[in-house]
# Entry
Amino acid sequence: MHTFPFSLSVLDWQVLNHEQHERAGQNEYNFDHPDAFDFDLMVSTIRRLKDGKSINVPIYNFATHAREKEMKTIYGANVVIFEGIMAFANLELLEVRG
# Structure
């Protein structure tokens, strides 16, 4: 179980397709572009945390450019802090944060 303070940085990146995976291996994939993020997962994760429910989030491995099979279990809390460069990049994400 993770307790405060805990930084959750494992839920952002999407599963790469073959072409994206090849570009990532050549350091030519932009992980900071909105297309690199799994906004559906972010929204559902934040909703569950706000509801006080536990979540299992994937761990992204930058060495293999893929999600690990192992997941991290995070438990809901009274306060959820969501921050990062993509915090304002998705309308649904903005609405769930409100």
